[in-house]
Each structure stands twice: as structure tokens, then as C-alpha cells.
Design brief:
24% strand; single chain; 14 helices; alpha/beta; binds cytidine-5'-monophosphate; 6-stranded parallel beta sheet
Amino acid sequence: MYQGKCVILGVTGGIAAYKALDVASGLRKKGIIIETVMTENATKFVTPLTFRSITNNPVSVDTFAEPKIWDIQHISLANKADLILVCPATANIVGKVANGIADDLLTTTIMATKAQVVFALAMNTNMYENPIFQSNVEKLRKLGYGFIEPVEGILACGASGKGRLAPVEQIIAETLIYLHRPKDLTNKRVLITAGATREAIDPVRYITNHSTGKMGYALAEMAKRRGADVILISGPTNLVPPPGVTVVKIKSAREMAEEVFRYFDQVDIVIKSAAVADYRPAVAVSHKIKKKDEDLIIELSRNPDILYELGKRKDKQVLVGFAAETDNLLANAQEKIKKKNLDFIVANDVLVPGAGFGYDTNIVKMITPDGSIEEYPLMSKEEVANKVLDKALKIYNSRYLE
Ligand code: C5P
């Protein structure tokens, strides 16, 4: 599937540069051709010779080096690339690209390419958290650049925090996802709900849950990349929506219900990954509740079960639910499929490390009405998203095209 694809591996000057060797080696094993472009600083950490030996290809550093065959190198590399993976990517390279600076071979190649560019970030925590860096990332995300986020751990400087290059296997897996981008959802409208809802107690307080929206945003991103027309109905979150997606922002479960029902008749696939509050304060008091010496009792009313309603209205749509459970995962999931008339449910035990709220990874089981269960190992939320979309599309096709 990947045979003959060309990845330009951009290596910048961070201590994690040596890990890019394993990334190169892993990609080569898939039949991918790797051409390495190193910054001057990167060559201080690992020599070009090492990359040349691992990739069996010449390594470029200097824009003005005499080429073996005459061509304008940054243009030929830019055209040749199916993907440019910058690994590790420092704050410096992200800053340069975000601001249109092209002053060496790697930055000129990135500037000249029409291929997807992905940055696997690695840097000191303070640099990572620096608002200048973060706004550069946000700018590039909006323009469609991809990012593989760093992970928490001990850093080269001795500090501990977010900044370590993501695990090599994850970088390889995500690169393959970027490369393998079938447009198999073209002409499909996909509605995705994401994040938590907020149920007002009074103008300053609310009830919510730990959902961050990462799973829903990953679904939206993958569906968009695969060619779908995506409507993302999202609770409050700090995440940046993928480019090209219609985003509808809501706060409460009732607002979410209204928006979902508005779009339902126009869509082919509905994936409800939001953690919708089941209850809301019976009365949302219009002024701030003053504290008193006695306890305060808040009465809760049942929110509409959106998915249950959709299950009743379902016509042609493929309906996918999520089940975040802490006990009796499978039994609860199976009951929900029946009750809500779902095509399948994606179940995860939110107490397992690596699964559920806030993580970039998830461990899921997909369960169908006939009781069959597909179990998946720990995967990035993007990989989970692709599995969910694969399954939804398969059901759609079997139902409507045959
Ligand atoms: O029954 P439970 O809330 O656990 O079901 C979870 C699934 O139902 C999720 O897909 C969630 O988005 C959806 N849901 C909903 N409306 C609610 C509660 C949950 O659509 N009020």
C-alpha cells in the first residue's frame, strides 16, 4: 500500500534527532522511500552519514551544494514528496514556517511543497508552553499542517514535563495514516458531536464532566481528510477545529439536541462521541446563588437522550454511539445498542490508563447489534477515528449500495 511513496524526512537540531533514525527505518520497512533533509544544527547531533546508511539515499543539508544531477533541489524535493515529516521538530522550525521564513534547504522545501507537512514536536516544556510557539502551532493547524504532539516525561535538560518526542511507533503509525488517505467519504455528510456539555446552575456555575472533545475532534479531522462534508457539534473546548469543517458550538445538552435534530435529516452518518450530561439543574437560577450556612440541594431534571431520539427517527443514517463506562462495559454497551437502535457502539473503560478522557490515545471495543465484538489495542485517537469511520462506511455501503 505504501510501496514507492516518498517521505521527505526533515530533521532539525534537537536531542531527539537520533530517534528519527528509528522512524526512518520503520517507514522504510513499509516500502517507503525516505529522502532526508537535515538542518545544519541537526548535523551536530547525528551525522548525515548515519541517515544515509539507514535510508540508502543521499542526505541533503546545504541549499547551495553542487548536486550530483542538475536540478533545483528544493523544488525537486518539494514535488517528489508525498509527505514531509519533520522529526524532531523544534520550536525554531515551527516558528520559521509559521512566519514564511525560508532560509535553508528544509524551510525552502516546505515552502515550495503542495504535500502534507507534519511536525513531530520535541522541545523543552517551557518552550512548548511559550505562547509565541503555541500561536505559531495554531496558525499552522488552521492552514492544514499536521502535528504529532510531544508526550510528558523526563527531558534532556533534566526537567520533567511535556516535550518528549512521541514514541517512535506512534510517529510511524500516524505518518502511515497521513500517507494512506483514501477519499472514500467523498459525497458523504457526517455529523459528529464532541466534548462535554455544561448545565447551568446559575449564571456563574455549571455541572459538567471530564470530556475534552479530543475523540470527536479526531473523528472530524479524519472524516474531513477522507473527503466527507463534516458537521462538528461541539461543547466548550480549547481544541482547534480541523480546517474545512462546519463547527456548531453549543453549551448545554438541550442546545446540542436542537442542533443535532436540525441537521439529522441531511446526513448519512452520525457519530455521537460527546459526553452529554444526562441531568441538568431543574431550575437555572437567573442570579448568582448566595452562600448560606445550610446545605444547598439542587434538584436535577432529565436531559433529552439525543441518541435515543435519533434511534427512533432513524431512516437512512448510520448511527454510532459511544459508551464511556467504568463498570460492566460490555453488558451496558449491548443494552444501549438495543435501546437506542444503534448500528454499533464504541465502548471504552474510562478508568484504564491510556483510554478515555484527556488522553491522546484510546482503547476501544466496537460492538454490533448481533453481539459481535471487535477489540482493539491502545491506538492514537486518530487511528481509532479511522477504524470507526471504516466500520460506519462499510455498514452504509452494505445497506445502501447493494
Ligand atoms: O446512555 P449513555 O449516555 O451512556 O450513552 C452514551 C451515548 O449516548 C453517547 O454516544 C452520547 O453521545 C449519547 N448521549 C446522547 N444524549 C444524552 C446522553 C448521551 O446522545 N443525553
